[in-house]
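step: validate -> pass
step: tokenize input -> pass
step: predict -> running
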Amino acid sequence: MKMTLLDTLFILSLVILTIGYILPIYVMFVTSLKTPLEITQRTYLIPGEPLQFQNYIRAFELIFPSLINSSIITISVTAISTFIGGLNGYFLSRYKSRLTKVLFIFMVIGLFIPYQVILIPLVQIMAATKLALTYLGLILSYIILNVPLASTLMGTFFFSLPRELEESAEIDGASRIGIFFKIISPIAAPAYASTSIIIFTQVWNEFLLALTLSTPYTTPITVKLAEIKGSYVALYNLQMAAALLSTMVPLLLFLFLGKYFVRGILAGALKG
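step: predict -> pass
step: emit ->
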């Protein structure tokens, strides 16, 4: 089969984009295996000799408490936000009234407004309720920021589900709550998985709110990565090793739920 000019340009674009995506990761990996002296030589693409694998051991020791903190915060936020988002999305997709329209407008506003705009009021609320600088304060703040996204994603999926399933269950005497948990939720597993991956990744990688509301005892991984570099000597080798280690958790989540991810994202685009 003869390649056209469009095919050639398409393949060339993919190659350039792939190189552009992989090259920074390669530089991070090479840097993580060097000594500080080798890094100052600015041979970014050339591995050092010998390879300093002990950097990963040292980096893991430094970030382990923060990995635990981020895991506690992110798993809690993801589970609660996805659950509430499922309930909200189902309500908005099934009940047509003026109230649901108003709620949907507020939800869209909450989804698209930059969270930096409400950062100061949010911190003030956390301080007034004595939740600032606590796990609970961080978790509640992230839930407030991520529930609109979860509700939108789940609602989009529920819009695509045929109502005949629920009508049949109602005829058999099932309640609305029973229908949601026993019929709709199992069908919506791909949407729950894709929503969980998106929220987990966003919370895991968030920095500004974590920096504002965390303490030395609740420091998430993003804040710890900024601290590892050092104040006087830039330990980029440890910082790059720690950054690569920190990506393992969301990567493992994606590998575990990845088969549902595309299915859940596309499901909302297919009506019926």
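step: describe -> The chain is about 75% helix and 0% strand.
step: cleanup -> pass
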